[in-house]
Amino acid sequence: MMNDKVTPPIYVLGTGLSHNGSAILLKNGRVCVGIEKERISRKKHDGGNDTLAIQYCLDAEGIKLSDVALVVQCANFDIPNRNQFRGERIFATANEPQIIDISHHLAHAYSAVGTSPFSECAVMVIDGCGSPLDQFLNMHPEQKKHIDSSFLKEVQMLCEKDSFYHFDGQKLTPLFKDFSNMSGAVTSELKLPTTQHSIGGFYAAVSLYVFGDMDDVGKLMGLAPFGDAKDFTFDAFEFESGCLLVKDSWKQYFTNPSQGYDYFKKHFSYYANVAKWAQEQVEKAVIYCISNRLERFPHKNLCYTGGVALNAVANAKLEDAQIAENIYFEPAAGDNGLALGCAYYGWLEHLKMPKVTHEGTTCFGKQYSEKQIEIAIQKEANKTYTQTKFETEEDLILYCAKKLNEGKTVAWFQSGAEFGPRSLGRRSILAHPGIDGMKVHINANIKFREDFRPFAPAVLKEEVGTYFETGRYSPYMILVDKTRPEFLKQLCNVTHCDGSARVQTVEETWNPRFVKLLKEFKNQSGIAVLLNTSLNKKGMPIVETPEEALNLFGISALDILVLENVVLEKNND
Q1: What is the dihedral of CA 345, 350, 353, 354, to 10 degrees?
Q2: Which member of 8, 75, 175, 389 has the greatest number of CB atoms within 10 A?
Q3: Which residues does 315 contact at the CB level (< 8 Å), separation at least 6?
Q4: Do residues 44 and 38 make contact, with C-beta atoms less than 8 angstroms apart?
Q5: What are 98-115's pLDDT values in tens digits?
Q6: Confidence of residue 156 (pLDDT cuts 50, 70, 90)
Q7: Which pLDDT value is given to residue 186?
């Protein structure tokens, strides 16, 4: 007689409790749901207590905490207590499941190998600051043999700054780990806020000098193309025995820190030149570091992650340097990806389960039902909009493509949200790439942000070589290319001042509706490209719910909001 009993799925929960906190749930080795805490709390870069993010994952999957086989956690400078961490935790009243801790860089590394297409590879992690050495050894005593003896003798607190691993398909082995002492508190605009000798810390320090804040260090990359570094003839980095060190001498040349946005605007060219110099320094440092590791430990496949791996310009230079045959740039390379790495560590290393091939998507959020959308729209404030519900996808796509071609801005809310810093067609603001003034309008009246910041082109994957010189595969918007000269006018809103573009090649496998929209837009406009930026405004996390999309629609100059099959349009006289 056949046994009809179904084997229950194995759930592994990963949770990151540093800034940019997040939670990820694996089901039989695949991501079934994931969320960044900021998307729910609505506080940018929110971290700490993880109950909110974990509950979201459990609710989305329709399971209880008792259904989870294992929890893996990571928090910089802390090993969180099971019951309390900046407030009561979801585990406070339960003895199960087991919770294990892993180090910061190991979590980054597992997030890359878990989502990468490789069965075997090298992994490079570069960021501003990882786990303290003593905490690392407390969590991973078996790895002491991989740490250089000079670090073990150091009396000051040392933290991870870059790590290089080999992945054999199941387990990560450290090949080279570099540590740095901390730089102390931020007492000036050039005091590194993290480790003294990290690329990420250097970039953050220059960002603070240029903008007066570190809310979005990626702005520095957007500012750099306006500058010229020819007058800066000194270097920020030096290298000793393969270790990267940040010099102190460069700081003497920077004595005019930003005093706010008006001051920044007044001295725009100066700060652009500083940004250009810093960007070039980072590019050289990244290529040197990774080249050095691959020369010592060659491998044709490379995964690259950590906060510095979000620098799309440096990434493109790295790819062009051809130091590895295949490079996978982890889309959630910042600390929001730690939960992902925790979950994969649990599955691969702790449970010893085989790697399950990841299908490439970053869209781990839950889908909102037709009923939830209806309830959100019914509120009084939304009754002034013209509402149309499309019965077929074809009609919806035709209508939206027509409006985009007419120059309307469209808030595009579809299915489960993206995980990581980039909107890739689930929570996006879309617009025509070539209508004059569109870039200025969106920055000023929709995003409410600085006018120098560029927008990205989303292009049909098979058409990328038509419009962009390298035609590189870039599904996660973390590689730049150059717009071909003959398309500069048609793509003026998605091409930066130096001709560069941070391209997204759109994947039909996990973005089918967005592909259909791009195809129809091409039919109507002749261009297979749309301007794509995140569905938020400056200082706001990317929209998660229909209510948040409606709120942004109401306070900005967006023309149209598409919530799945429902279209809302402002009645502009």
Answers
A1: 40
A2: 75
A3: 304, 309, 329, 478, 479, 480
A4: yes
A5: 999 999 999 999 999 999
A6: confident
A7: 45
Q: Shortest CA distance to 202 belongs to which of 119, 307, 303, 125? A: 307
What is the pLDDT, as a whole number, of residue 193?
55
Largest CA distance in the chain: 82
Q: Do you know the residue count of the chain?
A: 573
Sheet order of strands, 456-460 included: 386-389, 566-569, 560-563, 410-413, 427-431, 529-534, 456-460, 504-506
**Tokens describing residue 558:** 């967006």
Q: Residue 220: which H helix or E strand, with range?
A: helix 219-223
CA–CA separation, 270 and 496 (whole Å): 19
- Dihedral sign of CA atoms 247, 249, 250, 256 in order: positive
Band (154; pLDDT cuts 50, 70, 90): confident
Categorise residue 66: left if φ over 0, alpha if ψ from -120 to 50, beta otherwise.
alpha
Residue carrying the six token digits 């793509």: 491
The tokens describing 41, both together, are 């709390």
pLDDT band at 62 (very low <50, low <70, confident <90, very high): very high
| Residues forming a β-bridge with 74 | 16
- Report whether pLDDT(190) > 60: no
- The pLDDT of 238-254, averaged and rounded, is 92
Quickly count: other Cβ atoms within 10 Å of residue 100's Cβ.
Answer: 15
- For residue 354, whether the previous peptide bond is cis, meaning omega lies within 30 degrees of 0, is no
CA distances from 465 to 461, 474, 480, 482, 529 (A): 9, 12, 13, 10, 12
DSSP summary character for residue 463 = G
Angstrom distance (rounded) from CA 414 to CA 392: 15
The structure's pTM equals 0.95
